[in-house]
DNA sequence: AACCGCTTTTGACTTTGATCAAAAGAGCAT
DNA sequence: ATGCTCTTTTGATCAAAGTCAAAAGCGGTT
């Protein structure tokens, strides 16, 4: 079936699956189904029984939880090539967070049971998962560090840097991937703070902001400003690409 | 050799190793050596070539990094049964953080190469590592949530709760495991803020503080105050026990 | 007891970011 | 173009936490 083999091809591009044998990948994709979802659609909510894990073909998905007193905590915001829901393999069978589409998306849903079985029987996949988890873990460590060591303008600068390919030298144009309110919460600040912090960053580094488009003459402007409060000097390797 | 079999026995108590066959565990412990270290000793610094991973028998160890502008970011503070340095298996062979003894400790050092080889050849261990990584990942997610959603007194209260066994009903006595300055940085705040926040917590919940000893009549006092800003209602399962 | 070095607390002040309220801008349908 | 909605910005104010400085407390020695 054509759509099945396209799914296999897509998954092969993702680090955690890229080393797998064709047959293993096909077993995982056996029950795959595609779904298109528009902005604001809730894929599942925290506590729902976990049947599927998801891989994003395009668009953006927000993972979040709500606190008892009604605030929202963003876990992560994911896009093309990212995977989510797969950690429920190691859990009690419920999703530990809710997932909402924040930019129209094409998504592949795959049964957790099949992934679980393959991991348990396929050493290669288990190791790939371990590597992926380790990378994610490192990313989270860095996230915690950023939240405590960087102030608001620095966090924005750091985020912008991570949107670029890391060895550009000349002028760079960056497009913010989703709206500024969401970006604010991704960076752990209020929308008003984001707006003001972006102005401050503009002041401090000379970047040019036009709506969701940002231009800078070179990355150094930003790295000097943002990476000072960070433990890993710039091209902060490893943190860019990852599957949830 | 007696000390070798004691090491095996100790590792067997740790979740990630508990399901292993005796022979597998013995292979990992083959080159084990014990070390006693006093407060302030640096085990390794970030960037050192990673040869060993460590398991703590007793005492406390701080993992941290330094930012370019000279501040210190605490990664984690670990004690009995915790493991660290093992993620270097998935890295470029250097430790990604520094490790310092903060309370006199007894530690087992084991070669990373042996662990790596065992993981690659032993499906059971790979799966146990995956489970352990998933638990740690969840913990980190919670840590990020705490840092953004809870204020200073709430974070302290939450930390105290996690020092208790979670189903106590009557009065509880808690001993702070290490000094307050370190605890402050573990919770992402300044020592002065910690001191004042603890007073505020005392005010708000009626806990009694005498030096490093804290008494409370029941956990509810604290949970009402601290867990309101959190997404997982109290006994916050999973987060207590873990390896690294 | 007196002293030393350390941790912890307290005080005064500053800075950062949150909050509340309102205005401005952008996108879209009519 | 007009009106509608939603996002973003701006302004004014407030609260939380950081900073700097000094005092108090707490072992452990001598």
Short structural description:
Chain A is of the alpha+beta class and 244 residues long.
Salient structural properties:
homodimer; 244 residues; alpha+beta; Jelly Rolls; Arc Repressor Mutant, subunit A; 2 domains; 3-stranded antiparallel β-sheet; 41% helix; disordered C terminus; DNA-binding
Structure report:
2 copies of one chain form a homodimer. Chain A has 244 residues and is of the alpha+beta class. Chain A has 2 domains: 4-121, Sandwich (Jelly Rolls); 142-229, Arc Repressor Mutant, subunit A, CATH 1.10.10.10. Chain A has helices at 2-12, 15-18, 22-29, 112-121, 123-149, 152-162, 180-186, 191-205, 219-226, and strands at residues 33-37, 42-44, 52-66, 72-78, 83-84, 98-111, 172-175, 208-210, 213-216. In chain A, the strands form 2 sheets. In chain A, strands 1, 2, 3, 4, 5 and 6 form a 6-stranded antiparallel β-sheet that branches. In chain A, strands 7-9-8 form a 3-stranded antiparallel β-sheet, with no helix packed on it. In chain A, a hairpin with a 5-residue loop joins strand 3 and strand 4 (72-78). Chain A is globular, with a radius of gyration of 19 Å. The first copy, chain A, starts with a helix and ends in an 18-residue tail after the last helix. Mean pLDDT of chain A is 91; it is low at 238-244. The A-B interface holds A 46, 65-69, 71, 73, 75, 87, 89-91, 96, 119-120, 123, 126-127, 129-131, 133-138, 140-141, 143-145, 147-149, 188, 227-233 and B 46, 65-69, 71, 73, 75, 87, 89-91, 96, 119-120, 123, 126-127, 129-131, 133-138, 140-141, 143-145, 147-149, 188, 227-231, 233. The first copy, chain A, binds a DNA duplex (30 and 30 nucleotides) through helix 8.
